[in-house]
Amino acid sequence: MEEKTVLVTGIGGNVGQGIIRNIRELGYPIKIIGTNITPFSAGNHLVDTFYQTPYGYEASFLPVIKQIVNDEHVDLIIPSTDYESYYLSLYNDEIECVIAGSSYEVTERYLDKFLTFEFHNQNKISFAESFLPSTYSNEFEKFIAKPRKGRGSRGLMINPKDTSFLNDKEYMIQKLYEGIEITSAVYRRYGDGDIHGLLTMERSLENGATTFCRVIDEYDIEVMEIAKRMCATQPELRGSFNIQSIVTRDNVVVPFEINCRISGTNSIRSHFGFKDVQYTIDELLWRKQPQSPIVTKGVAYRYLSDVIYPENIDLKGTNQDNFKLF
Questions:
Q1: Residue 61 to residues 35, 56, 91, 288, 317, Cα–Cα distance (Å)
Q2: Which domains does the chain have, with CATH numbers?
Q3: pLDDT tens digit string along 21-67?
């Protein structure tokens, strides 16, 4: 098997770190390049080479990425953040390697939660009822004011007394649905456009990140119907994407956010038979038909551990340095 080079963005976060661990688990001859907006993070020790990059929306982002791709002979980029998914797809024609993910039109739509609502509403695809602050007139008994392009749980306001100060360009109002929160990973094959499979987990979160999850299948039929509608109306939606939903007390599945990329529980779900990182690698690097998912039940917890560097380092901290996990 020929050696390849894969660049994973956003390695300071759990999504990028999970992608890297899944790649390592494959045992494929892959050199991993990691990038992040800060020079040093917990993900650095997982990669062979690290580069600091600007934010995706900065003018210097594209030239820096192009230089890394050229210098490292990168074959594939796997973005781990919504912003980088959008900007890398936007610049796709100027970057001389394969980029995992959907087209820039699709990634833009799912980067902005209100654009998501508008598209789903127009195409009769289930999604949480939403308004812009300027058009909201107390339609909901309970609601959330959230950033249209928020990351994690930052900036959320539950039932604020006043929404008049919120800017339409930055915020939206979304009905607060009460029930079980589930997260569903779906993989649509790049080759033929068919849905390869899905895995759903009930989960608990802290600070926007999953801490506990349990594989369930009670809502797979409903989630699959939503995924099929999404794919039928968007030919350029491809690869792995994530549907975050609430199952109401009436057992209705209501998506409230879509992540148009490999999501944060990738490191967990690969152990339960849904290996979307491997599917991506197999399809985009070696043009292999991915193995069919064989989903198994189970639970997972996340906990903190430490990366210890016993010597002074130059703030690169890659796997070439002396470190200890504790």
A1: 11, 6, 10, 31, 22
A2: 4-101 (3.40.50.720), 107-112+177-301 (3.30.470.20), 129-175 (no CATH)
A3: 999 999 999 999 999 999 988 899 999 999 999 999 999 999 999 99
